[in-house]
Amino acid sequence: QAKHLGGNTLQFFTERAQRATIDYLQMENQLRKALVEGQLEVFYQPRLTLLDDRLEAAEALVRWRHPQQGLVAPAQFIPLAEETGLIIPLGEFVLREACRQAREWQRSGLADIRISVNLSVKQLRQGNFVSLVRQVLEETGLPASMLELELTESQLLDDIDNAINISRQLRALGIKLAIDDFGTGYSSLSYLKRFPVDYVKIDRTFICELEHSAEDAAIVRAIIAMAHNLELQVVAEGVETQAQMDFLKDQRCDEIQGYLVSRPVPAVQLAELLG
Ligand code: C2E
Ligand code: MG
Ligand code: MG
Ligand code: MG
């Protein structure tokens, strides 16, 4: 009986694994096709300065307009893109599109807004990443000072020496750099001193309970104080309420990003917000 059950269980798992593999392969092929057929879109979420109420920057966030499934969020396909290497052409697409868009807004006199683009550490490991960025800036005509690049804290730590080396070269071009999802990387803080960066983005998980959690409030206060002592600017992610904003203003946080200001929106809608 037990043996029999075991056999069935094994068969069950095998079938499941097979199905998962097929789904995965299908999705990989679909994503490959999406890149070629232009199904990927870039949305933008503005950042507000707390000192003088300006929309200073906007983060580029990729979306997949899937022919059957509609608008798909990055959590559903970025991990697959990372694993398959598709993150390299995907990342290049987002970088080029965001730079083109920012330059268009600048040229039309609508706004001088800096655009912030998320990077995967895989992109940094390509030998020619710095020249790619230089080329995209040249092609689009966007000044380097209007581009910011974000790397998550946990990815940075995977490959800190390479990341520091490339970051130095990017900053030498005049590009701004940010550490994303700060506070979630279980990291030693000492690398902050070594890492050439302009902004620290406090992860949303510390912001959402800010009003009710004394611990989160203490952590956020400490991150802001530490970043300022290192002469870094601080952005709080995921700000949804006025109370969170008031707390962050009191603590001299430099900028906020979150639904309170705006959700990520298509380029035309951001243009309306800016205009
Ligand atoms: P992230 O870079 O930390 O981006 C912030 C995420 O928080 C976005 O999710 C944004 O929509 C969400 N968010 C912003 N404000 C709020 C808020 O007030 N409340 C809540 N609940 N959420 C808020 P999104 O767009 O789904 O992106 C998720 C992640 O996917 C990003 O996190 C980033 O790590 C990754 N990602 C997105 N686009 C790209 C890309 O072009 N390249 C790479 N490598 N990663 C990307
Ligand atoms: Mg980001
Ligand atoms: Mg983040
Ligand atoms: Mg994130």
TrEMBL record:
Residues 24-275 form the EAL domain. This is cyclic-guanylate-specific phosphodiesterase. It comes from Stutzerimonas degradans.
